[in-house]
Write a structure and sequence with these properties.
The chain is an alpha/beta fold. Helix content is about 45%, strand content about 20%. It has eleven helices and twelve strands. The relative contact order is 0.13. The mean pLDDT is about 95.
C-alpha cells in the first residue's frame, strides 16, 4: 500500500467521555487537517460503543478517515460487519479504514457470553473473517464454506465506495500467529505504543519473513506507529506540561519523564525531529495519543507546527 506522505491520526479513548467531547475532538481533527481519528472497541467498561459512535461521527465530519482501533473479531459476524462497513463507507463518502483484531479482552468476551478460543484459533478466525468481508465487498453474491464461517448466496449491496474496499488495518504484534495473518491480509499493520525503531525493526523482520512464506511483497503493507505526544510551544511550556502530568500521576517530573520511554516529547521542532526518524525508517501511519482529556490547543499546535513538515507537495 503506497502512501505519498505519512498519515497522522488522532487516537482517542472514549471511555469516561461523553458524545459531545468526542464530537468536538473529531470535528477539530477534521478542521485542522489530520488524516483520521479513531476509537477503541470494548464492551465491558463505561464507554460508548465503537461502531455506533463512529457512524454518528461520520455525519459530523467531512474529510478525516474513520478508524476503529481495532474491532474485536468475535463481537460481530463478518457477514454483518461487511455490510456495516460498506454502509459506513458509503455514508462517509469513502473514509473508512477497517481496523480488526483477534480480540485481546478475555473478560469482555466471557462477560457477554462470547467464545474465547486459543490465540491461534482466534487469529485463524480473524483471517477467515477478512476473507469473507473482502468477498462480500465485491458487490456480487457470495457462497463460502470455511472452517469457521459459512455464506449461502449472500449479497452486500451497496458495495463500499472505496474499490476494491476500505483498507484493512490489523492490530497486534504476536510474532507466531498475528503477524503471519497481517502478512496475508493487512493493508496496514498496527502494534503496541511507543516502540523504538529497533523494536520496529525486530517486528518488521518477522513480518517480512511471514510475507516471504505467503508470497507477498512486504512493501504492500504500510507500517504504523502509536505515539504518546506531549507538546509545548517552547521549552517553558514543555516543562509546564511535564509538571502538570507528573502531578496528575503523583510522581516527580524526573520520574514522569523517565516513564515516557519513546513518547514524542518537546517543542514542535523537537517533535518533528523525533518523528522524522520514524518516517525515515519507513513508518507510513502515526496514531497520536495526546494526554486525555485531549486539548484542542494541543491538536492545533501539532497541526500548525508539526504536520506541515511531513506534507508532500
Amino acid at each position: 500500500m503506497t502512501e505519498t506522505s505519512p498519515k497522522f491520526v488522532v487516537r482517542l479513548h472514549q471511555g469516561g467521555f461523553d458524545y459531545a467531547y468526542l464530537r468536538e475532538m473529531f470535528r477539530a481533527a477534521d478542521r485542522l487537517g489530520y488524516d483520521g481519528a479513531s476509537l477503541y472497541d470494548l464492551l465491558g467498561i463505561p464507554t460508548l460503543e465503537c461502531w455506533t459512535t463512529l457512524s454518528a461521527l461520520a455525519a459530523e465530519t467531512e474529510r478525516i478517515r474513520l478508524i476503529p482501533m481495532v474491532l474485536a473479531n468475535l463481537y460481530r459476524h463478518p457477514g454483518t460487519l461487511a455490510k456495516m462497513a460498506a454502509t459506513l463507507d458509503v455514508i462517509s463518502g469513502g473514509r473508512l479504514v477497517l481496523g480488526v483484531g483477534a480480540g485481546g479482552g478475555e473478560g469482555d468476551h466471557k462477560a457477554y457470553g462470547l467464545p474465547y478460543p486459543s490465540t491461534r484459533e482466534r487469529v485463524a478466525m480473524m483471517g477467515e473473517a477478512v476473507e469473507v468481508i473482502r468477498l462480500l465487498w465485491s458487490g456480487e453474491r457470495v457462497s463460502f464454506e470455511g472452517n469457521y464461517y459459512r455464506l449461502d448466496n449472500a449479497l452486500c449491496d451497496p458495495a463500499p465506495v472505496q474499490r476494491p474496499g476500505p483498507p484493512i488495518l490489523i492490530g497486534g504484534s504476536g510474532e507466531r500467529h498475528l503477524l503471519r495473518a497481517a502478512a496475508q491480509y493487512a493493508d496496514i499493520t498496527n502494534m503496541r505504543a511507543d516502540m523504538s525503531i529497533g523494536e520496529h525493526g525486530a517486528k518488521r523482520s518477522v513480518l517480512d519473513a511471514h510475507c516471504a512464506a505467503v508470497g507477498r511483497e512486504p512493501s504492500e503493507i504500510a507500517l504504523s506507529h502509536n505515539a504518546h505526544v506531549f507538546i509545548g510551544e517552547d521549552k517553558a511550556a514543555v516543562e509546564r506540561v511535564m509538571a502538570e502530568h507528573a502531578g496528575r500521576h503523583g510522581v516527580s517530573v524526573e520520574g514522569f519523564r523517565a516513564s515516557l520511554g519513546n513518547a514524542i516529547v518537546g517543542t514542535p521542532a523537537q517533535c518533528v525531529e523525533q518523528l522524522r526518524r520514524y518516517v525515515d525508517y519507513g513508518i507510513g501511519w502515526f496514531f497520536l495519543l495526546f494526554p486525555e482529556p485531549v486539548s484542542v490547543g494541543d491538536l492545533d499546535l501539532f497541526a500548525k507546527e508539526v504536520l506541515p513538515a511531513f506534507r508532500s507537495g
